[in-house]
Design goal:
The complex is a heterodimer. Chain A contains no helices and 30 strands. Chain A is an all-beta fold. In chain B, helix 3 runs parallel beside helix 4, helix 5 crosses helix 16 (381-396) and helix 13 crosses helix 14 (348-358). The chains are: A mainly beta, B alpha+beta. Chain A: InterPro entries: PEX7, WD40/YVTN_repeat-like_dom_sf, WD40_repeat_dom_sf, WD40_rpt.
Chain lengths: 361, 420
């Protein structure tokens, strides 16, 4: 952990960080005064230079900021999720005010994601229990998908522009397919009960031979699509365990469990460089790098019963403990040697570091 | 948007509690800054013009109810900072006599008083305003109340002449169409049959008779000693009024079916399936939970949220149909989360229509009867519903209730309460 770049956001507690999809030297941080409980928000656009991390631009908002997404069609634009329920599109060439304001959510907007394939839409999720689909050119939403309870995170499939996922406080991961007819289910294609035991005559077992019987329902705060395997999603939340699921088998229970965080998992992000690597930020103030075990040889079977499927136990590859408050955001840099990550926490710090330096050798 | 909601959501993310999911679980949480009710009561409600309160002024009714609040809660009256009284018909808004009434009731001059008028929802609006004052930190303890003496103040002077300007605007002119006439038209337009109205009204009477016989109103009624002039002998005597005198036994849909319609020859609305003209007062003592605990006050329930909406003046009866979903939206509740609805029975037709449109089962609405059976003293009703609701929830071991009413000139109001 030799080289680590640091930037401070005095008076503002970051909630999310995202690298630009266009430049390896540009990133943005969504931050909020007073831990996002009451007060203003500030969006920091940061540039990397020989002199370290420097501010390219900041934008202030009247309410807290909880998430951001870079535009995929305009390298100077990005959209933020605001505590007053709005989404605001900022342009680095336009000072001070957003170029577009999208205000339909009735409560805090908690997440926003840009369509990475068609690049012509973005989605948002909110405490008001809805996911909304937006065009950056229109102030009214294109579509509203009902969830029914506080929805902390929503995302597009990285390979299919019609597929949207969302996780919410009711312990469910929902997959919407916009190609299906609206019908009564509003495009809802799959519902995965994240904490329920798998359906089937026998319960699966864990690598240590114990049977796996599910867990108490808990709020899910974050999720991400695997960038290489387009049916795998990782979830994280209040119960501190990261789980991966195959969306083709919604009743089948998790593929893998990643256990280690001491408090709720606030953000997970799959590596853009390797199919089995993901990173997580948690209220336990740590950022951890994991493998989901999919590229490792399965351990020798200790039990004869072949009906039992097995749930993998992933392995923690490294732990970054330099944050001194809740770690809330983490993102991988798409460029370079494939290990650079940015992490943010309520300690008012943005840290840029190489995940390779954490790996056990 | 609420800082406290955000804080409690974060707290639950850390503690692993699942309750921040919203809806019913959320409103059943007990937090230090909840606005709670530590006393609520009403006077008996008596028939306008001939009931036992016919010679009692509104201010005297209010003074009695406020004295009851002090007695029941045992609170030091000097700790109450503001009192808001909803009253509709009083000339000058009743401001002067209500200030005087609080002094009579035993509050020191340091306690401020105001009146307000949002027609039939005045009593609820008074409670909500006081709750909001407490929530905003303006005051710590307050009383929301309502009163109406329709015996002494009901009459043609209630609405002043409309100007040419108001008359020139069609929707504005509709605001002065009499309740009975517009309700008759609405019942016809919305196909609410005479038979269904009479059945609903008869059920209200029957529920109220049963509740009165079982003593279910005893908890909420504060007995009042008043002067009463006997209309036969002309003799004035002191009587104690402790029961609603508008409740009639033996009312059935068939007996109501014989009454002639009041507003149209072939109409369906009549005195038996509309609310009674009545006198009465009610009051609700509100404070933060932290304050109640500090003062050792017994918490009866909590105020959760309220909604106010406008509808077409000629369709004022549909107010609850629009206000109740709005308060559900504010609280994340659904109709299934609510155990008891107290929806004011201004007219059987509008109450029935709202309940049917919202899909509320009959057994959840006004379990002790409503304004058709015991009366609708305009300003009082909103505050009266609070004690009717909270004591019913407590008695039946249920928790979540909604009070709602339509409001003349085309509005609706609703509030969510939790019994503890």
């Amino acid at each position: 952990m030799a080289s680590m770049l640091e930037f401070r956001t005095p008076g503002f507690n970051p909630y999310a960080v995202k690298y630009s999809p266009y430049y390896d030297s540009r990133l943005a941080v969504a931050a909020s005064a007073n831990y996002g409980i009451v007060g203003n928000g500030r969006l920091f656009c940061l540039g990397l230079s020989a002199a370290g991390i420097q501010i390219e631009k900041t934008f202030d908002t009247n309410d807290a900021l909880y998430d951001l997404a870079w535009s995929e069609i305009n390298e100077n634009q990005l959209v933020v999720a605001c505590g007053d329920g709005s989404l605001k599109l900022f342009d680095l060439a336009v000072d001070q005010f957003p170029v577009m304001n999208f205000h339909e959510h009735k409560r805090e907007t908690f997440s926003v994601a840009w369509n990475p394939i068609t690049k012509d839409a973005f989605i948002s999720s909110s405490w008001d229990g809805t996911v909304k689909i937006w065009s950056p050119a229109r102030t009214a939403s294109l579509k509203t998908l009902p969830i029914g309870c506080c929805t902390y995170s929503t995302a597009f499939s990285p390979t299919n522009p019609h597929i949207i996922s969302a996780v919410s406080s009711d312990s469910h991961l929902r997959i919407f397919d916009l190609r299906t007819p609206v019908s009564a289910k509003y495009h809802l294609a799959t519902v995965i009960p994240v904490h329920a035991p798998p359906a089937g005559p026998t319960l699966p077992r864990l690598a240590d031979g114990q049977t796996f019987a599910g867990a108490m329902p808990a709020e899910i705060l974050t999720h991400d699509w695997n960038k290489y395997n387009d049916t795998v999603i990782a979830t994280g939340g209040v119960d501190r365990v990261i789980r991966t699921f195959d969306i083709r088998n919604p009743q089948g229970g998790p593929l893998a469990l990643l256990v280690g965080h001491d408090y709720a998992v606030r953000r997970v992000a799959w590596s853009p460089h390797a199919s089995d690597i993901l990173i997580s930020a948690s209220y336990d103030m740590t950022v951890r790098v994991w493998t989901d075990g999919s590229t490792m040889a399965p351990p020798p079977s200790p039990i004869v019963n072949n009906n039992n499927t097995m749930i993998r136990t992933g392995a923690q590859l490294g732990l970054m403990n330099r944050h001194t408050e809740f770690a809330t955001g983490v993102d991988w840099c798409l460029f370079g040697l494939g290990g650079w990550v940015a992490s943010v926490g309520w300690d008012e710090r943005v840290l840029l570091w190489d995940a390779h330096s954490l790996l056990r050798r | 948007m609420g800082a406290l909601d955000r804080l409690s959501a974060l707290g639950n993310q850390l503690s692993g509690a699942t309750s921040s999911a919203g809806g019913r679980a959320k409103i059943l949480e007990k937090n230090a800054d909840d606005i709670v009710v530590t006393a609520c009561l009403r006077t008996a409600i008596t028939k306008g013009g001939k009931g036992q309160f016919k010679d009692t002024y509104a201010a005297d009714l209010m003074a009695g109810a406020l004295r009851g609040i002090i007695e029941r809660s045992g609170i030091n009256p000097a700790l109450v900072e503001d009192i808001c009284v909803g009253t509709v018909l009083a000339p000058g808004g009743g401001a002067t006599e209500m200030r005087a009434a609080t002094l009579v009731a035993g509050f020191p001059e340091s306690v401020s008083v105001r009146t307000l008028n949002r027609q039939c929802s005045s009593g609820l609006q008074a409670c909500v305003d006081v709750a909001n004052q407490i929530g905003a930190g303006m005051i710590e303890i307050g009383i929301g109340a309502g009163v109406e003496s329709m015996s002494t103040q009901y009459g043609p002077g209630a609405v002043s002449e409309f100007s040419d300007l108001l008359e020139s605007h069609p929707e504005a002119a509709n605001c002065k169409v009499p309740m009975g006439v517009l309700t008759e038209a609405m019942a016809r337009d919305r196909n609410i049959s005479r038979a269904s109205q009479d059945a609903f009204a008869a059920a209200s009477f029957q529920k109220a008779v049963k509740a009165q016989a079982a003593g279910l109103f005893r908890d909420e009624i504060m007995p009042l000693k008043v002067k009463f002039e006997d209309p036969k002998t002309g003799e004035t005597k002191e009587i104690v009024v402790d029961r609603d005198d508008g409740i009639r036994d033996g009312v059935t849909a068939e007996s109501l079916g014989k009454i002639r319609a009041a507003f149209a020859k072939d109409g369906s609305v009549h005195a038996g399936n509309a609310s009674q003209v009545s006198d009465g007062a009610a009051a609700v003592l509100l404070m933060k939970r932290s304050t109640a605990e500090r003062l050792g006050q017994t918490i009866i329930g909590k105020y959760v949220a309220a909604s106010i909406v406008g509808v077409k003046p000629l369709l004022m009866g549909i107010g609850p149909w629009k206000a109740i979903p709005k308060v559900f939206e504010l609280t994340g509740l659904t109709k299934d989360d609510v155990d008891v609805f107290e929806i004011n029975e201004a007219f059987a037709s509008q109450c029935l229509w709202c309940a049917n449109e919202l899909g509320i089962p009959q057994e959840k609405i006004n379990p002790k009867g409503g304004a058709i059976a015991f009366g609708h003293p305009l300003g009082c009703t909103g505050a009266r519903q609070v004690s009717t609701l909270l004591y019913e929830l407590k008695r039946t071991g249920k928790q979540v209730g909604v009070t709602s009413m339509c409001v003349g000139t085309g509005m609706g109001m609703a509030a969510v309460w939790v019994a503890e």
